[in-house]
């Protein structure tokens, strides 16, 4: 049911000039927000990994300085 509701704002057509796609404003907004969520997730994973690697490096350096 949700797919049918979302398909209302997406209207593809084939003309003699080629293919055309008509998108409504809510559909464009959903596409934009979906991309934004995807990039936020990607960046949070990247920063989480960067933080983990940095902390691991600090811990290794800290432990190696205690044992000469």
- The N- to C-terminal Cα distance equals 67 Å
| Residue-averaged pLDDT | 76
Radius of gyration: 24 Å
Integer tally of domains: 1
Relative helix content: over 70%
State the low-pLDDT regions, or none: none
Strand elements, count = 2
Instruction: Specify the biggest β-sheet.
Output: 2 strands, antiparallel
- The topology string of helices and strands comes to HEEH
What best-fitting shape do the alpha-carbon axes yield? rod-shaped
Q: Which structural class do you get from the secondary structure elements?
A: alpha+beta
Contiguous helical run count = 2
Classify the beta-strand content into a percent band: 15-25%
Strand order of the largest sheet: 1-2
Structural description of this entry:
This protein has 68 residues and is of the alpha+beta class. It has one domain. Helices cover 71% and strands 18% of the residues. It is built from 2 helices and 2 strands, in the order αββα. The chain has a two-stranded antiparallel ribbon.
Explain the layout of strands and helices.
Blueprint lengths: L1 H6 L2 E6 L2 E6 L1 H42 L2
Antiparallel strand pairs: 1-2
Describe the structure in brief.
The protein has 2 helices and 2 strands; from the N terminus they run H-E-E-H. With 68 residues, it is an alpha+beta fold.
What labels would you give this structure?
catalytic activity; 68 residues; 2 helices; CPT_N; two-stranded antiparallel sheet; alpha+beta; rod-shaped; 2 strands; CPT1C isoform 1
């Amino acid at each position: 049911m949700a797919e049918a509701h979302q398909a209302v704002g997406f209207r593809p057509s084939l003309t003699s000039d080629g293919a055309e796609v008509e998108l409504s404003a809510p559909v464009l907004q959903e596409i934009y927000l979906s991309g934004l969520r995807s990039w936020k997730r990607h960046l949070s994973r990247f920063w989480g990994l960067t933080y983990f690697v940095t902390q691991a490096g600090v811990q290794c350096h800290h432990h190696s300085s205690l044992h000469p």
